[in-house]
Amino acid sequence: MSVLTRSVDPQSPPAPHLRGVVFIHSCPRALTSHVEWALAGLLGPSARLEWIAQPVAPGSLRSELGYKASPGTAARLASELRAFPGLRFEVTQEPGTGIEGERYACTPSLGIFRAAMGPHGDILINEERLRNALAQDASSKGLAGHIHDLLGTAWDEELESFRYAGEGASVRWMHEVG
Description:
This protein has a single domain (18-125, 154-173), classed as 2-Layer Sandwich (Alpha-Beta Plaits), CATH 3.30.70. The chain has five helices and eight strands. Helix 1 packs antiparallel against helix 2 (73-81) and helix 3 packs antiparallel against helix 4 (142-151). Strands 1, 2, 3, 4, 5, 6, 7 and 8 form an eight-stranded mixed beta sheet that branches. By secondary structure, the chain is α+β, with helices and mostly antiparallel strands.
């Protein structure tokens, strides 16, 4: 039996820190402190949110937080946040040299969506996913329906009114976490 180990070159530079943003589009008031604890657990104690009313969903609040952290942080944040019922959110992490960016979107009715993101914020769809959409074109959805699924159109449509409700809100940036 062999044991696989990861060799670490002591001369190699540490993983780059990439910028990202957590958008909490709507959060039930009772969950705000739990969401903050979850974010602080991954980003550090300075991950504090400034909550404001979300006019699209009366009784809920919204917030945004910029961060700078190691690659993969967006996935960990989305995984933590999706456990909270009633939460609508998006998490992004910008691409770096040789590292794709990521975008996660989550709504109570649709669940979670993930897409790779290019340097200009556009969604990247790999060849195999496109081939699969072409192969399934005969289904009732048709090719356009499969492409909409790959782009996360349903999530964008559901979150759009929540995004506009936050226009003009400030984003607080955290630097060098993780």
